[in-house]
């Protein structure tokens, strides 16, 4: 599984996810920092990446356009910094890797994870 970390999560996530075994890029390394979500989504689809973000706009893109884009939505109540959230996100990615490779939206917060397979109905 290949992961694309959105700008809103910061650069600290890419090395942690790489160390966990995934090919990971930070969006600014491949595109403009101010790029619109639909451009990021198109790039991720074209290159086979799962987007990790805090931006609900990606869920809207998947829902409205029925795009086959897997999205991991981080919904941290306190902090989405790796030092606080890596012990939650990394196991969640491992648990749902197969579903994300097929096409899914995974919502991860401190208390639970929810997965919806694509296409959304």
Proportion of strand residues = 15-25%
**Poorly predicted segments:** none
| Strand arrangement across the biggest beta sheet | 2-1-3-4-5-6
Q: Could you say which structural class the secondary elements and strand pairing correspond to?
A: alpha/beta
* Main sheet makeup: 6 strands, mixed
Distance between the termini: 25 Å
The number of distinct structural domains comes to 1
How many strand units? 6
What letter string, H or E per element, gives the SSE order?
EHEHEHEHHEE
Helix content: 25-40%
Please count the helical segments: 5
Average of the residue pLDDT scores: 93
If you compute it from the alpha carbons, what radius of gyration comes out, rounded to the nearest whole angstrom?
Answer: 13 Å
Shape: globular
Describe this structure in words.
- The chain has one domain (2-117).
- 39% of the residues lie in helices and 22% in strands.
- It is built from five helices and six strands; from the N terminus they run E-H-E-H-E-H-E-H-H-E-E.
- Helix 1 links the parallel strand 1 and strand 2 (23-26).
- The mean pLDDT is 93.
């Amino acid at each position: 599984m290949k992961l694309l970390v959105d700008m809103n999560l910061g650069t600290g996530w890419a090395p942690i996810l790489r160390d966990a075994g995934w090919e990971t890029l930070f969006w600014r390394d491949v595109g403009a920092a101010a790029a619109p979500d639909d451009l990021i989504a198109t790039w991720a689809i074209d290159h086979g990446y799962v987007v990790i973000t805090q931006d609900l706009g990606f869920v809207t893109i998947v829902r409205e356009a029925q795009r086959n884009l897997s999205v991991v939505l981080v919904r941290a109540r306190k902090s989405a910094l790796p030092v606080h959230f890596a012990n939650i996100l990394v196991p969640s990615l491992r648990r749902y890797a197969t579903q994300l490779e097929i096409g899914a939206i995974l919502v991860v917060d401190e208390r639970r994870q929810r997965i919806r397979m694509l296409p959304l109905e």
